[in-house]
Design brief:
- It is a single chain.
- This protein is mainly α.
- The protein has one domain (44-52, 63-285): MetI-like fold, CATH 1.10.3720.
- 77% of the residues lie in helices and 0% in strands.
- It contains 11 helices and no strands.
- It has helices spanning 26-56, 68-77, 79-113, 115-130, 133-144, 149-172, 176-184, 189-226, 232-241, 245-273, 275-281.
- Helix 3 (79-113) packs antiparallel against helix 4 and helix 10 (245-273) packs across helix 11 (275-281).
- The protein starts with 25 loop residues before the first helix and ends in a 6-residue tail after the last helix.
């Protein structure tokens, strides 16, 4: 008599027409990234080509639109000068962005948790957003002096609103059936928030963060326009006063580069922290 242990295991059942899922290889992902990046690079080359053509044919006077070569010469001749002021603007931008994210997330959670807080706080946030920051920046300089504090505060005010709106939208976009299920299973409110609401709001939050980080650069530079002795805003004002358009264009290009780099860093963080969301939107990660 054969033992039950000696009974052969049943053969695995094959499902017709269903292929196993495989993650795309490194080569495919690299090819997908190259396919996505060549178009903006091509557009950038076209813009630089048009800039060079305008300067070479003297369609516009050189003191109004310098050539790309003259702008590059300024960057190469004064790298330390531009680096010093770029670091100041980057520091103000990053600190303002971090504070805006922290305050924005807390405010969004309070607004979603309490209808009274939302009805009280939302009109104030909207009013603060529509007030032109360039109009209140001099007031911050009078109150706080010419240091980095007014610049950071303006960066916070400009970057704060997208974070709050995106976070509130994400927290409210949770499927009500999931919330009912968690309540039925006996989950506490803080457990529901950590396990369901907050993870579901992250895609919306990162959308707001990518907008906020670029606005934070604008806020820092606006503060430097009003009153500063360092930073890219100060460089641009000095160059404008001296009719030094190559230096002015160099400051604008460096400022734009800072915004692009910070945007890319936030996007990389999104892909690392939300691989399920980034993979769903990435054509290279489809199966």
């Amino acid at each position: 008599m054969k033992s039950a242990l000696s009974t052969p295991a049943p053969a695995p059942v094959k499902t017709a027409g269903v292929a196993p899922r495989r993650r795309p290889g490194i080569g495919k992902r690299t090819a997908g990234m190259a396919e996505k990046s060549w178009r903006p690079l091509a557009l950038l080359l076209v813009c630089f080509g048009a800039w060079w053509l305008i300067a070479a044919t003297e369609m516009v006077e050189a003191y109004l639109v310098p050539s790309p070569g003259a702008t590059l010469d300024v960057v190469l001749d004064k790298p330390g000068y531009l680096w010093q002021h770029s670091w100041v603007t980057t520091y103000e931008t990053l600190l303002g962005f971090v504070l805006a994210v922290a305050v924005g997330i807390v405010s969004a959670v309070l607004m979603v948790a309490s209808t009274t807080v939302e009805k009280t706080l939302y009109p104030i946030l909207l009013f603060a957003q529509v007030v032109p920051k360039i109009a209140i920046a001099p007031l911050f300089v009078v109150w706080l002096g010419f240091g980095v504090t007014p610049k950071i505060l303006i960066a916070v005010l400009i970057a704060f609103f997208p974070v709050v709106i995106s976070m509130v939208t994400g927290l409210k976009a949770v499927d009500p059936e999931m919330l009912q299920l968690s309540a039925t299973m006996g989950a506490r409110p803080w457990q529901t928030f950590l396990k369901i609401r907050f993870p579901a709001s992250l895609p919306h939050l990162f959308s707001g963060l990518k907008v906020a980080v670029t606005l934070a650069v604008t806020g820092a530079v606006v503060g430097e326009f009003v009153g500063a002795d360092e930073g890219l805003g100060y460089v641009i004002l000095q160059a404008n006063g001296n009719l030094d358009t190559p230096m002015l264009f160099a400051g604008l290009l460096v400022m734009s580069l800072i915004g692009v780099v910070l945007f890319v860093l936030v996007e990389i963080a999104e892909k690392l922290l939300l691989p399920w969301h980034a993979g769903r939107r990435d054509p290279a990660a489809t199966y």
